[in-house]
Amino acid sequence: MALSKIDSEIEQVDQEKYLRQATSYYQALEKPLKYGPAVDTLTDLVAALHREFESNYVNIEMVNHLMLTYKSNPREWRKYAKFDRYSYTRNLVDAGNGKFNLLILCWGEGHGSSVHDHADSHCFMKMLKGDLREKRYEYPNRSGKDTSRSHHPDGEIDSRELVEIGETPIAVNDVAYINDNLGLHRVENPSHSDTSVSLHLYCPPFDTCSVFQDNLKKTTAKVTFWSKYGVRTKQNEQ
Question: Is 118 annotated as a binding residue?
Answer without folding.
Answer: yes
